Backbone:
């Protein structure tokens, strides 16, 4: 990176500047993945997104290290944890990068909603290096963020959110990942009279949704991936919402990963400030298939349109970007 991490440019931090450059990486990854929508090949879609994102990253003048990625270097074509990105190869990494080149690969393969290409970034040491395991989560918007408790039963949290939002419990919508492990949670939510919105994949978008104006989702509840928790937290730092989560490993394999990372107790509760710390956190995403956060890629005979969002905490800004490209 050629500028000091705390430098500013016309009132904007270097990290906010970089986030605007990173949007070209998420856009190109989204376009590459979109070629595979509905074709039933999630690995091909994932690889296309990874290749496009990596190629663009390595033309940008910065030096970053992937602290959250999807694959190990010797097992996957994904951007891997520990990989250095950027064309400032002579420099030591000064930026943490959390990345999901294609969130919801199955959604792309089968033409379902919520697929995104996502990058979060911050100064070194600011993004939590989450081992690949499950976490129990609850996410809410700014108005309700002081009323939820991960230890409380769904009935209590739903009632508190309803009061904070000035709604009846019957008007509250809770997003839950559609998995067998959530059968009891779904039953408990419905027993309160609240609505359940099931989704097949994409708890980054659904974790952010309660913090978006005019969105129909009020709460995210359930168990999902740790990487998705950190990426959602980066966005919530700008939006003012909250995510609370703690480790909930599904099996011995996940427990072994956590142990290798020095995690043997699963009691600690993490907040958005704990997952994405400091004053210079950014979040950049482009839609592949439409969802609550962004519309998907649109391909016509004479242009390709992408829809993206760039968020930063310093200054606190949210930019929605629509880009039209001529096809090659």
Residues:
């Amino acid at each position: 990176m050629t500028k000091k991490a705390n430098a500013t440019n016309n009132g904007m931090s270097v990290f906010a500047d970089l986030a605007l450059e990173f949007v070209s990486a998420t856009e190109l990854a989204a376009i590459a993945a979109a070629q595979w929508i509905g074709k039933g090949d999630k690995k091909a879609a994932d690889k296309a997104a990874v290749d496009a994102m990596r190629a663009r990253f390595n033309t940008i003048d910065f030096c970053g290290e992937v602290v959250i990625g999807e694959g190990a270097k010797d097992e996957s074509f994904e951007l891997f944890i520990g990989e250095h990105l950027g064309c400032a190869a002579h420099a030591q990494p000064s930026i943490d990068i959390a990345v999901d080149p294609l969130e919801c690969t199955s959604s792309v393969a089968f033409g379902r909603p919520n697929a995104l290409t996502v990058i979060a970034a911050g100064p070194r040491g600011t993004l939590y290096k989450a081992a690949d395991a499950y976490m129990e989560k609850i996410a809410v918007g700014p108005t309700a963020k002081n009323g939820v408790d991960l230890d409380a039963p769904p009935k209590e949290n739903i009632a508190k959110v309803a009061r904070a939002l000035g709604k009846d419990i019957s008007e509250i919508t809770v997003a839950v990942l559609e998995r067998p492990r959530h059968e009891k949670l779904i039953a408990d939510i419905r027993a309160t009279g609240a609505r359940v919105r099931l989704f097949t994949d994409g708890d980054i978008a659904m974790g952010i949704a309660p913090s978006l104006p005019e969105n129909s989702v009020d709460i995210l509840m359930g168990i999902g991936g740790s990487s998705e928790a950190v990426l959602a937290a980066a966005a919530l730092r700008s939006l003012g919402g909250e995510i609370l989560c703690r480790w909930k490993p599904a099996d011995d394999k996940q427990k072994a990963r956590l142990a290798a990372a020095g995690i043997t107790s699963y009691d600690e509760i993490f907040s958005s400030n704990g997952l994405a710390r400091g004053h210079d956190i950014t979040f950049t995403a482009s839609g592949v298939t439409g969802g609550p956060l962004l519309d998907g890629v649109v391909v016509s005979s004479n242009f390709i349109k992408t829809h993206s969002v760039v968020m930063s905490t310093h200054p606190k800004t949210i930019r929605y970007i629509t880009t039209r490209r001529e096809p090659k």
Notes: Residues 14-34 form the longest helix (21 residues). The CA atoms of residues 311 and 318 lie 4 Å apart. The domain at 134-275 is CATH 3.40.190.90 (D-Maltodextrin-Binding Protein; domain 2).
